[in-house]
Amino acid sequence: xxxxxxxxxxxxxxxxxxxxxxxxxxxxxxxxxxxxxxxxxxxxxxxxxxxxxxxxxxxxxxxxxxxxxxxxxxxxxxxxxxxxxxxxxxxxxxxxxxxxxxxxxxxxxxxxxxxxxxxxxxxxxxxxxxxxxxxxxxxxxxxxxxxxxxxxxxxxxxxxxxxxxxxxxxxxxxxxxxxxxxxxxxxxxxxxxxxxxxxxxxxxxxxxxxx
Length: 211
Ligand code: BEZ
Prior knowledge:
This protein folds into two domains: 13-144, Glutaredoxin (3-Layer(aba) Sandwich), CATH 3.40.30; 163-206, 2-Layer Sandwich (Antioxidant, Horf6, Chain A, domain 2). Helix content is 32%, strand content 24%. The protein has helices spanning 23-27, 43-54, 56-61, 74-88, 103-107, 147-163, 185-191; strands spanning 13-16, 19-22, 31-37, 64-70, 96-98, 122-127, 133-139, 165-166, 177-179, 197-200, 203-206. The chain has a five-stranded mixed sheet. The protein has a four-stranded antiparallel sheet with strand order 8-9-11-10. It has a two-stranded antiparallel ribbon with strand order 1-2. The longest helix is centred in the last third of the chain and has 17 residues, at 147-163. The chain is elongated and about 60 Å long. Residues 38, 42-45, 141-142 line the site of benzoic acid (BEZ).
């Protein structure tokens, strides 16, 4: 199944490193991140899972539940988690799906046969509390993802959901944001008491509303 932005992510049940889960039950009303890795005991994945575990407080602050996936069985995940904890100086604190039958990988299109017939690529999706897909990124196996960038995207998505603002290129927390085109300037002035800077009628900035 090929998922696109705005689609509702399918539910599934799976074995994981913390036991059997139902995806929707695991997410509850939180935001969600599901990300795939080529395989257990691979170097780039080891650093990615360690980095994600170290950022737990940041994901919690944003009400995001994280779920990883690799196409190996639970017993192999458990041995690998010990290595991740040891080498990355952390404690893996989120489930890793044991997708040895590729069921979830196929559901989310995580196998790209021209890259590898059997291993998953490095894909990541962000889901809103409504289970709608908000972001899809796919990296090659050899490039580790930047999890600070993932948090930045979550911040941007949550600002859009809560305040009708968008974020400009290279935006970082605390910088001015953009008034969404759907809002008239008259309504924007009422909605954003910190002020609206009109550069062009279609390019209007306001200070980050939740700061
Ligand atoms: C990995 O760590 O997953 C990896 C690194 C280089 C090439 C392919 C995979």
